[in-house]
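Could you help me review a protein record that somebody else here produced? My question to you is simply how this chain folds and whether the tokens agree. Thanks in advance; the entry in question is below:
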Amino acid sequence: LTSTVPFVNLPAIEELWLSGNEMKDFEAVVPLREASGKGQLPELETLYLEYNPLASDFEYRKKLAEWIPTLKQIDATLIGGLGAVMGVPSPRTTIPSMATSLATTTTPTINTEEQLRQLQTAAIERAKQETARAKGGGA
């Protein structure tokens, strides 16, 4: 398979397993996105697209979760409410800003994209620190 077109008119479908096909990019998933946006896939909670070329995209799960908000699982990864990947707060969840002290009790509300940027920045910084530590360069 190279597209999700055959599956857009299945309103009762709960799981769609399309692993190991030839879906090269997100254009292959646009039909599901459009059907979901029109409320045509209200029951779709699980989508497997692993082992398709598009699954190698860095933001693969994030994009699918945003495109199809009814999803609760993408491949073997559970995702949270409102399209948030498990462990990443949903758009309505509040988290402390990186610059905010842990002692601060107020937290700003930020969108998913900004949350992911902050988490990515923190992960990169941590990796740099661990690399420097491993090379004997300290923290």
